[in-house]
Structure formats: C-alpha cells, structure tokens
Amino acid sequence: MYLQPPWALFVTSKDINAKYINDALTRAWKGDNEGAWNLWLATDSYTDIPKLRDDNEIAEGTKPPIPDNFASPFAGKSVEECAKWLQHIPGDSAVNKEYFTVINEFSKEDDTVLVVQVNKNGEGGEEIEVEYFPQPTKNIMMEMWTNGRGKFEEKASNYQRARFDDGKPDRSKGPRYG
C-alpha cells in the first residue's frame, strides 16, 4: 500500500533559510525520479494548501523557488504542535493528515528529513501522539510513498538498528523497535 500525497513539509528550525528549503525540495524531487512535487511547504494559513481535485490527479505541492524572505511560522515549534495544526486542515484539502515531513535542527548536519506518523488516541481520536525517524533528503519521497501498512514500524526499526550499530545518536521518537 502507498500513501497519497501531497505531504506537508514543516520547518521547525530557526536556522533553516529559503535557500536550504529550495535545495531540499529539489533534492527530494530528484530522488523521486523528478516525478512530481509532492511536498507542500506548510505556512500558517490554510488558504494556500493544495485542494482535492475532481479529475483523479494528485494535487501538486510546493515547487521551488520559494521567496528568499520566507520564514517558517513553525520555527521553534515541536513536531507535536505541527501535527495538531495539521489535524485542523479544511475538508477540501488534499494534504495527508496521518503522515508528514519535518526539516528540523539536525536536517542540515545529517542531510535528513523526518518522516512523521500521527497516531490518534482516546475517544474520537482527540488525543494525538507522533512517532518519527529521519531519512536522507534524497530518499524522502520514496519513504513517504511506501510507509503504509506497517512499513513505518519496520523502517523506524531499521533506522534505530543502523544508528545503534554505527554508534550514532538515535534521532527518532517512538517505541524502541526490535
């Protein structure tokens, strides 16, 4: 099973500028064989969010370049805060609410983007928790396409195991997978 794009891309680090975001969007696109612009750069407005289409085509995300003066309204916010904001998108939005991506404070250093899964708990799914793990920027589109049906847990486990084996810090959040 694959996940339907577009996926939100939140930028939570204050040290990430428009040049880096343009580069990351382009590398993600090239890593997907230049297929489509499936990441939507989240702003603090729902007005620019990709809308559902009635022609069975996938709504397009953000295509670079973004303005040089772009400053993420989510800089300094947590992944959980991004997930909560995403849960309130309008019903006509095409953006996936269960999975999204984040450029965080480690993205430049590690050349990664977080893959985030939203888990709803409590009565009516009122409470949410997030799990995430980083993946190379150039691979992020394929990671997002293939995260459905238990693949998230498998990929998070593979990430955690590789970090442990390499003696590097684990930058994921969620259960420790076997």
From TrEMBL:
Region Disordered: start-end pairs: 158-178
Domain of life: Eukaryota
Protein name, entry field: Uncharacterized protein
Record organism: Delitschia confertaspora ATCC 74209
